[in-house]
Design goal:
The complex is a heterodimer of chains A (434) and B (229). With 434 residues, chain A is an alpha/beta fold. Chain A is 56% helix and 10% strand. Chain A is elongated, with a radius of gyration of 35 Å. Chain B has two domains: 121 residues, Response regulator (Rossmann fold), CATH 3.40.50.2300; 83 residues, Arc Repressor Mutant, subunit A (Orthogonal Bundle), CATH 1.10.10. Chain B is 47% helix and 13% strand. In chain B, helix 4 links the parallel strand 4 and strand 5. The chains are: A alpha/beta (434), B alpha/beta (229).
Chain lengths: 434, 229
């Protein structure tokens, strides 16, 4: 019957599978879990539960109790030891799959009961009250299940796995659109009932008919608008949490700003620009600053962010202070050829020059320029031996291939070196398309 | 009040009289030791009220001013400048901050500071900046230059038509700002553009004036929404 039913009985009799509900289940997975745990047939367990259910509903209560307390497979303390047998269950994070579509099953019951209620009302039967209330409960329950249980479990309504026994009720429901259609269907049913009630129950005692009518209208309203209100409420809560966190973060930032950042600046100042202590303090400062001021992480780093990160990393390894200034709306990606060439230039500056290095990124409407300027001993590309590929290949060749240009010139006043990278933006866009 | 006017530290009579305003005593004493001997530190203050009093009574040439300060009505360095302008109109201010946030920097510049440098600058860099400010020049760090370029829309090709236009940079000012953002010293900017250092200083001062007077909405909007980094 169930993939999770056949336990590894043959393996060892002493071994007892952990008590955990399989993720591929009929309703709650309780029977399957117990059957596996007790090494019994799942059919026997089900019969016992059904039998107990007739004993004053004990079976139902027990089922609900187990459902609430037994963990899902791969969740909490339950190890996945027994999961090997449950082929469909897979690893821990997979969603719960039910073989029957509970919301639509409840809806079908509600439809049947609604018909019964009208028949009952037309012929003046005595069980009208109980039938109507159960009908309302089923209709509301179908939506509640859909909104609360399935959403909570991360259930994937498995269209393919629906057993034929509930075919009538579940036939048409789509996988994800089901959530909306169950709401509309249940709401529509209740509204129809509310409209038809006064007509159909002409013979029913008004003391019974009117409360039922009111109750029907109320439940219809809840079914139709409840999920919407619930959604709004959840959204409000999420926003509130986010705001509180943002405020807290700002407070922490203000405090750290006045204490730790000042101290780090002081350490750098006192320790001298290129000392080990100063470098570590500077790296710490950057890290802290980033954490304090960075909002949500950008999905893909742009050129400026990438070069700032790279500069911070270089400062850790080399006696260098790198200041990155970016101007204009960042457009270039941090993974492009331009970024690679700029990184190479920065690495060269850190390795061969040290001291203060200025990196300037300018993004205009039609081009991106990167300047890397150091104050080292200077450097002439003509005198670099052939074997040294750093500048020739990694910077100039790379920029040429990307459709841009690179120039290595002596810094202003003959001090140090400046690498100028230029890339036209239109070319860049085309060049980066795969 | 934590400030105590230092009676005559060996500075020469011609030295630039400096007041250091910072709420960290270690930083104040560190900076005092690092400054050149041409600078005479005549006083220190640790909060807004003490700073305003010290500036009013000492009338220093230059105030080294931390952007974030306790006390007063919470306005920090900008508040110190506003409160002291009447009492000591000749005093010039150099903002000194660990802060990278644009609102802080622009706030203190618009209040009247003549420049902005980071606290990680070395003693000799600070001394040079103080001397420049005392001479009436503006001191721009590469980062501040980058911010100016962004805030005035220079990167998107906006350019002033007339010299007295406050909301945009002229072509020359833009060139100067670009070079400063690239890490060039004034002297190097002058050599690169074939102009005199004096002209560079004029351009920078003019940019500073625009930064202080412009009503360009991006200055504040941009500063609020992004961090100068």
């Amino acid at each position: 019957m169930d993939a999770g039913v056949t336990p590894d009985a043959g393996a060892s009799r002493a071994f007892r599978a952990p008590l955990a509900r399989p993720r591929l289940c009929v309703l709650g997975g309780v029977c399957a879990a117990l059957a596996r745990h007790l090494n019994m047939s799942v059919a026997v367990v089900r019969i016992i539960f059904v039998g107990l259910a007739f004993a004053g509903g004990a079976g139902l209560l027990l089922y609900v109790w187990f459902w609430a307390l037994v963990p899902l497979e791969g969740q909490g303390g339950a190890s996945a030891a027994g999961a090997g047998a449950a082929a469909g269950a897979g690893a821990a994070p997979s969603a719960v799959r039910r073989r029957i579509n509970v919301p639509w099953l409840l809806f079908a019951v509600a439809v049947a009961l609604a018909i019964a209620a009208f028949v009952d009302g037309a012929f003046g039967g005595g069980s009208l009250f109980i039938v109507t209330v159960v009908m309302l409960a089923c209709a509301a329950g179908s939506v509640a299940w859909d909104q609360l249980v399935e959403a909570g479990d991360g259930t994937v309504p498995s269209g393919w796995a629906r057993a034929p026994l509930v075919a009538g009720a579940v036939a048409g429901a789509g996988a994800r659109g089901g959530s909306r259609s169950i709401r509309v269907a249940a709401g529509g049913l209740l509204v129809a009932v509310a409209v038809l009630e006064p007509v159909a129950w002409a013979h029913v005692d008004a003391w019974l008919a009117w409360p039922l009518f009111t109750l029907t209208v109320l439940v219809a309203a809840v079914v139709l608008f409840g999920p919407w209100a619930l959604h709004l409420w959840q959204q409000l809560m999420t926003e509130r949490t986010a705001r509180v966190r943002e405020e807290q973060r700002a407070e922490i930032a203000a405090h750290l700003h006045d204490s730790v950042l000042q101290t780090l600046a002081l350490i750098q100042n006192r320790a001298g620009a290129s000392s080990e202590v100063s470098r570590i303090a500077r790296a710490q400062e950057r890290e802290l600053r980033e954490w304090l001021y960075a909002g949500a992480d950008p999905l893909e780093t742009d050129l400026a962010t990438e070069l700032k990160d790279f500069g911070a990393a270089l400062e850790l390894d080399h006696a260098v202070r790198i200041e990155v200034v970016a101007v204009g709306e960042p457009s270039e990606r941090g993974t492009g050829e331009l970024a690679a060439a700029a990184r190479e230039a920065m690495l060269n500056a850190a390795r061969h020059a040290g001291g203060d290095v200025s990196v300037y990124i300018e993004t205009t409407a039609d081009a991106v320029d990167v300047f890397v300027r150091d104050r080292g001993p200077g450097f002439d590309p003509e005198t670099v031996p052939q074997g040294r590929l750093g500048v020739r290949e990694s910077i100039m060749g790379r920029m040429r291939r990307a459709g841009g240009s690179a120039r290595v010139v002596p810094g202003a006043g003959g001090v140090g070196t400046e690498v100028r990278l230029h890339l036209d933006r239109r070319d860049a866009d085309e060049g980066e398309q795969p | 009040m934590t400030q105590e006017p230092e009676p005559g530290v060996q500075g020469a009579a011609t030295g630039i009289r400096v007041v250091i305003v910072d709420d960290h005593s270690i930083f104040r004493s560190g900076l005092r030791n690092d400054l050149d001997s041409t600078l005479e530190v005549v006083g220190e203050a640790a909060n807004v009220d003490a700073a305003a009093d010290a500036i009013a009574s000492l009338k220093p040439d230059v105030v080294l001013l931390d952007v974030h300060l306790p006390g007063g009505s919470g306005g920090g360095g900008a508040e110190v400048i506003r409160r002291s302008q009447a009492a000591s109109p000749a005093t010039r201010y150099l903002a000194l901050s660990v802060s990278d946030s644009a609102e802080d920097v622009v706030g203190v510049i618009r209040a009247g500071a003549r420049g902005y440098i980071t606290k990680a600058s070395s003693g000799s860099e600070v001394s040079r900046a103080v001397a420049a400010v005392a001479d009436g020049d503006a001191v721009f760090s590469p980062r501040l230059a980058g911010f100016v370029l962004d805030a005035f829309g220079a990167a998107s090709g906006e350019q002033a038509e007339a010299n007295d236009e406050l909301d945009r940079l002229s072509a020359r000012e833009r060139e100067v700002m670009r070079l400063i953002a690239r890490g060039y010293a004034y002297k190097e900017v002058a050599a690169e553009l074939f102009i005199s250092i004096k002209t560079v200083e004029t351009h920078v001062s003019s940019v500073l004036r625009k930064l202080q007077l412009s009503s360009r909405h991006e200055l504040t909007a941009w500063a609020l929404e992004r961090r100068l980094l």
